[in-house]
Each structure stands twice: as C-alpha cells, then as structure tokens.
C-alpha cells in the first residue's frame, strides 16, 4: 500500500487503475485479455501492458494487463475476473490504485467477487486514511518545529 490519498469524497469519483497479473503454470485456454474484451465496456479501458516481454516473477505469466476504469465498473470487472479464474483454475494478482492509494489482492477459485470488491474498497479506504494521518502528522511536526 502506498501512503497518501486525495480524500474520500474525491477518491470516490476517481478512476481506478488495476494491474492484473495472471498466475499460470500453463497457457490458458482463453487469454484473460480476450475474456475481458468480450464485454464492450472494457475494450477501450483494458489493454496489454507490455506485449511479449520475457522474464518477470516466477510462476506468473508474462501477460500483464492494465485497466483504468470508473469505480462503478469494478463489480462487473471483478465478476469477469472471477469467472475466468474459475474456468482456468488459476490465480490472478490484482494491484488496485485509486489516487495515490494502492492495494494488492490475490484472486483464486475460492474468492467471492462481491467480497473482492468489498476488500478492495476497504483496503483503499484504509490506505487513504493512513495516508491522511501521515500527512497530518508531518504537517503538524513541521509547524511545531518552526516555533
């Protein structure tokens, strides 16, 4: 998680950036990007991050997908992600960023898409609150140091 946020009311309206990294022991029957692009609302907002690069984290495929979507589209995207994970019998690491707050969630066959969105929202809110507290503490320390 990163340490700052732009505030709860502004954060609720901000687009969310997701980095999806499928964990695959073998090539999937249907690539995750193709699966997500079946829904027209995600075609423009979800893309391949690097195209054909090699290396990376052991056990993770080279397919990294970037999505920048409105928060209202997250439930639909998480439902698609969960159905793909269930069908492929694999896992996906999801880094969710809103403003300067970031959380990482692991999606597997035991994950409930509704709980996933709740977990992401709660974690982003906590990251935002801890970032605000850190900024407030730093600002208070700066004022006190000058006196």
Question: Mean pLDDT, nearest integer?
Answer: 74
Distance between the termini: 33 Å
Shape: globular
Number of strands: 5
Poorly predicted ranges: 1-11, 52-62, 142-147
Structural class, by secondary structure, is alpha+beta
State the major sheet. Answer: 5 strands, antiparallel
Q: Strand arrangement, largest sheet?
A: 2-3-1-4-5
Residue fraction in strands: 15-25%
Order of helices and strands: HEHEEHEEH
The tally of helices reads: 4
Can you describe what's shown?
It is a single chain. By secondary structure, the chain is an alpha+beta fold. It is built from 4 helices and 5 strands, in the order H-E-H-E-E-H-E-E-H. It has helices at 8-13, 32-36, 74-88, 113-145; strands spanning 16-23, 46-48, 65-69, 91-98, 101-107. The protein has a 5-stranded antiparallel β-sheet. Helix 3 crosses helix 4 (113-145). The protein is globular, with a radius of gyration of 17 Å. The two termini are 33 Å apart. Mean pLDDT is 74; it is low at 1-11, 52-62 and 142-147.
Q: What's the gist of this structure?
A:
With 147 residues, this protein is an alpha+beta fold. The chain is built from four helices and five strands. The longest helix has 33 residues, at 113-145.
Strand and helix map with partners:
Blueprint: H1 8-13, E1 16-23, H2 32-36, E2 46-48, E3 65-69, H3 74-88, E4 91-98, E5 101-107, H4 113-145
Antiparallel strand pairs: 1-3, 1-4, 2-3, 4-5
Helix pairs in contact: 3-4
């Amino acid at each position: 998680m990163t340490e700052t946020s732009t505030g709860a009311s502004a954060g609720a309206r901000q687009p969310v950036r997701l980095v999806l990294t499928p964990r695959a022991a073998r090539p999937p029957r249907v690539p995750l990007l193709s699966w997500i692009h079946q829904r027209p609302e995600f075609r423009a907002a979800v893309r391949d991050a690097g195209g054909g690069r090699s290396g990376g984290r052991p056990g993770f495929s080279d397919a990294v997908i970037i999505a920048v979507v409105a928060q209202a589209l997250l439930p639909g995207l998480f439902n698609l992600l969960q159905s793909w994970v269930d069908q492929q019998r694999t896992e996906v690491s999801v880094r969710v960023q809103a403003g300067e707050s970031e959380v990482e969630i692991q999606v597997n066959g035991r994950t409930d898409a509704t709980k996933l969105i709740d977990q992401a929202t709660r974690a982003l809110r906590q990251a935002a609150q801890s970032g605000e507290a850190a900024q407030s503490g730093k600002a208070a320390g700066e004022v006190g140091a000058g006196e």
